[in-house]
Write a structure and sequence with these properties.
Length: 95
C-alpha cells in the first residue's frame, strides 16, 4: 500500500511538472524586439544615473514606467503569441 501511494504521488508530480514546462526558448521576432528594447532602456537609465545625467528621482520615475511596460509585455506574451496590435500598444508605451 505504501509503495503504491508513493508511486502514484511520483506519477502525479511528474505529470504536473510536464504540464508546467515553459514554452520553447525560441520566441517570435516581435517578442524579441520588445524585450531587447526594454533591456536597452534599462541600461540607459543605469548609465544616466551613474553619469549624473539623471537624478535618482528621475530614475525612479523612469523605472516605474518601465515596470508598466514590462507588465504589458508579460501580459501580451501570456498566451504564447504577441499580436501586431499588442506589439503596437507596447511600442507606443516604450516611445
Amino acid at each position: 500500500m505504501r509503495f503504491t501511494s508513493f508511486a502514484l504521488s511520483l506519477l502525479v508530480g511528474a505529470s504536473l511538472a510536464a504540464q508546467q514546462t515553459p514554452p520553447s526558448t525560441s520566441t517570435p521576432k516581435r517578442e524579441n524586439r520588445m524585450e531587447r528594447r526594454a533591456e536597452r532602456q534599462q541600461k540607459r537609465i543605469a548609465q544616466g544615473l551613474k553619469s549624473g545625467e539623471i537624478t535618482a528621482k528621475e530614475a525612479a520615475r523612469l523605472e516605474k514606467h518601465e515596470a508598466h511596460v514590462d507588465k504589458a509585455i508579460t501580459k501580451a506574451e501570456a498566451d504564447g503569441k504577441v499580436t501586431k496590435k499588442e506589439a503596437a500598444k507596447i511600442e507606443a508605451k516604450q516611445d
